[in-house]
Input
Amino acid sequence: MSTLSLRLPNSLHEEVKSLAQKEGVSINQFISSAIAEKMSALLTESYLKERSLKGNKKSFLEAMSKVPNVDPSDEDKL
Output
């Protein structure tokens, strides 16, 4: 594990401290979790962008043509 020195505005530090306390975790755990969530979002976005470049409209339409044209079941209707 590594150590990171982080400068936060006092107002942000107090808010993080309060939220961490409400969650029942340390400030370090709270910030680590927040960083992990942000990284996950960014990495997922990057993955989806890369994956979309491999897409092919013709292949998509072929796959969609195999889906039966039926009404949704009652529990799926809005």
